[in-house]
Amino acid sequence: MSEYKVSNRYAKSLLELSHDKNVLDKVYEDIQLLLETLKENRNLRVMLQSPIIKHSKKKEVLRAVFSNKLNNLTQSFLDILCNKSREYLLYSILQEFNVMYNELKGIQAADITTTLPLNKELRLKIEAVIREVSGKTLVKLTEQINPELIGGFVLKIGDRQIDDSVSGKIKKLRRNLLV
């Protein structure tokens, strides 16, 4: 079975179980903590991916790192992943959970990359465009700064990408000239 299917099934199970036990929002917070920790800590990601390190040791490390920080359901879920030798899928499971949570709550996640931070007025305009494009009322906009864009922005809404950056236009112009 593909890693995507396995990750999808685990994420769906966690979402449904947390919803049934009325701890969905708490589990969502735990998922955000786990994702942020994995993004910031390369060593933890590598350890979870390693086939050399025993699953029991990975379980101990996860318990030590997240002790008293996670809901019991989330901690049990991590234990199950380790017991089933699926901890290497943790990051992709967490991402799938986010997608499913956003869909359940009617939230449209979007990423915008600019050269400078957005001011409040521009942020509100971009969120209005995202609502119009997606048809959803709630928007979760993640901002990233990349000076290499030179100017403009790159907006990702689901599987759509709008590249209105200067560097993107230069690349497009270069391709057209070389053809």
Query: What is the percent of helical residues?
Result: 55-70%
Structural class by SSE content: alpha+beta
Using the coordinates shown, work out and report the CATH topology of the largest domain: Peroxidase, domain 1
How many individual helices? 8
Q: How many β-strand stretches?
A: 4
Distance between the termini: 42 Å
Backbone CA Rg: 20 Å
The strand order across the widest sheet is 2-1-3-4
Low-confidence stretches: none
Tally of structural domains: 2
CATH architecture annotation of the largest domain: Orthogonal Bundle
What average pLDDT do the residues reach? 93
Largest sheet, in brief, is: 4 strands, mixed
What is the CATH superfamily of the largest domain?
N-terminal domain of the delta subunit of the F1F0-ATP synthase
Tell me the name of the CATH class of the largest domain.
Answer: Mainly Alpha
How much strand content do the residues show? 5-15%
Overall 3D shape: globular
Summarize the helix and strand pattern as letters. HHHHHHEHEEEH
